[in-house]
Amino acid sequence: MYRPLFAVIDLAHLSHNIRYLKSRLRPGTSLMVAVKADAYGHGVRAVVGRLVREGVHHLAVASVEEALEIRAFHRGVNILVLGAVTPDACVKAAEAEVEIALTDLSPIEHIPRLPKRLRVHLPLDTGMNRLGVKRTDEAVALARSIAAREDLELVGAGTHLAAADAEDPAHAEGQMDRLGAFVRALEDAGLRPPRVHAGNSAALLRNPAWHLDMVRVGIAAYGYSPDPSVLPAPSLRPVMSLYGGVLRVAEAQPGETVGYGATFAVQRPMTIATVAGGYADGYPRQLSNRGEVLIGGELRPVIGRVCMDQLMVDATGLEAAAGDIAALFGYDPPVAWRGGWWSRLRPEERAARVQETYRMASNVEKRRVLSLDRLAERAQTIPYEILCRVHRRVPRVVCD
């Protein structure tokens, strides 16, 4: 590690979240965790390893490519591809023993004879208008076509709740009613699959009646409620914290400006800290003159435009020095990371020292946290997007 910018992935927090979410499940309901987009930017290999340790046996991804990446290091977990797949991708899914959602992109008559039995789910469109069949007769006909082939097996049927986190639950309740009609039609035809699923993170937190046979959680596993104003979940802990090192500390006087476009005018004598991390690393440019970082134990504003690789912070009154570490989001850096800490370490020892000092200071109940909920609102986006956009050039330091 050379550049002072890294994300800490706290697997203990992931374990905590999974145990909490399991405690909220209706008895008999299985938990599926979405690990698409490199586990929401956290690193799929480390996340899957910890999920399996926590007894999670069902994973969801967006594509066959993502499923095959997991299969390369883990054979014993069930993987469902939620996105549409092509007939040739069905062949690869069957070979890798990966489950798929059977969509319009793969008409059954176009799927070649498969080398192994392919386990499929029926995607049912109850109000999302994204993927899946919209009528009960279509669902029954598709289930019959699946049953007619020896190389296909119907193992599930699911829908996606578009507004389970809305203040008014009416939309989600309407979707659940329509899903019930689909299930009854399949049951009447003797074709009900063993797993019916609709619930997401919001559904798990909101209503046990929406849990059904399996719940597919995403953002809650990584420490965030889909909408904390409607579904507060203070027991959840952020799994990722993003840290950037102070690159320079300089004084500025009234009349000077900060950053591209001179969008911040200095009104008083102030100290400016330049911090590693910019929009190319996944820190939103929309937080120019609006963001905050945790530096020196305090929340301080981002001033000027966020650059591609750096951002500037008002550090007036702080004992900030080059080599200190600031939190761009997540938990307050350990006190040990001050006083030019990064500069005193050899590159080959930095990852190990991050792990050691982070865990020694990880009494998270008493440490300040800069929540992505706060930053995402200011950036007019959601925590999901910021997590997924943390670039692969940012090292992930996994803390166990």
From TrEMBL:
GO molecular function ontology, one term from the record: alanine racemase activity
CDD domains noted in UniProt: PLPDE_III_AR
N6-(pyridoxal phosphate)lysine: modified positions: 36
Keywords: Isomerase, Pyridoxal phosphate
Residues in the signal sequence: none
Keyword Mitochondrion attached: no
Entry keyword Magnesium: no
SUPFAM superfamilies tied to this protein: Alanine racemase C-terminal domain-like, PLP-binding barrel
Cofactors required: pyridoxal 5'-phosphate
Class of this enzyme: isomerase
Family: Belongs to the alanine racemase family.
Classification via NCBIfam families: alr
Function: Catalyzes the interconversion of L-alanine and D-alanine. May also act on other amino acids.
Name recorded for this polypeptide: Alanine racemase
Lineage: Bacteria, Bacillati, Bacillota, Bacilli, Bacillales
Gene: alr
